[in-house]
Amino acid sequence: MPRIWRVTVVEQHTLIRRGLASLLSAGPHTCLLSAVAEPHELSDVLAGLPPLGRASAVAGPDVIVLGMSAGFGASQGETVELVCGLGAVLVVADFADGGEVTMALRSGAHGCVSRMAEESELLNAVGVVGRGGIYIDPLLAEHFHNALRLPPGAVSPTLARREVETLRWLATGLTHRQIGRRMDLTEATVSTYVKRIRNKLGVGNKAELTRKAFELGLLSASDVRHSPVESHASADREVRTSVA
Question: How many domains does the chain have?
């Protein structure tokens, strides 16, 4: 008989917390113990749970699904360290690059899942982490692999989330104007982002920028595999025609 994994959700935002709780409650191999907003609430909630069967130990969670509202940085790492003693931690966040995944694992997390993942992916991750394994969402795996390929002592520069998004669009061949339309930014703002990115990566032209981003794990082949340049260019021509 398949094992049922006891799960606790920690997520600050109410709608997201309820969504995760609903999914894990309905999962065929998961049992939701509790859903709280802040990590410090966990100890009190777990202390109030009944003993597990005849054992005197509290029926704590096998897996703690820890939601992060943004990316993964130093403060998020401290949160993982705070709760990892209460159960195996599975982080759900908007990971910007492989470096953030590495940071999460080094902080004590047993798994990382993108917020863009399918429901089945999260349930699968819970099972892997519950069995004591390490899980990396396929959406994040290539970025993580690229980050591991950094030479010893290399330091990956920290790009803001919007800078990473700009970089990925830039690598597909879009112009600053086209990127601005997709990110709801002015062309001048996009140009400012690109200038910051070049300064942080220490490169000049676009080809060097894209190559450096691959080397640092900020980009993966999946980011540029299906270049939308032609369709975007056509769309831009249509917009200009309709305006004229």
Answer: 2
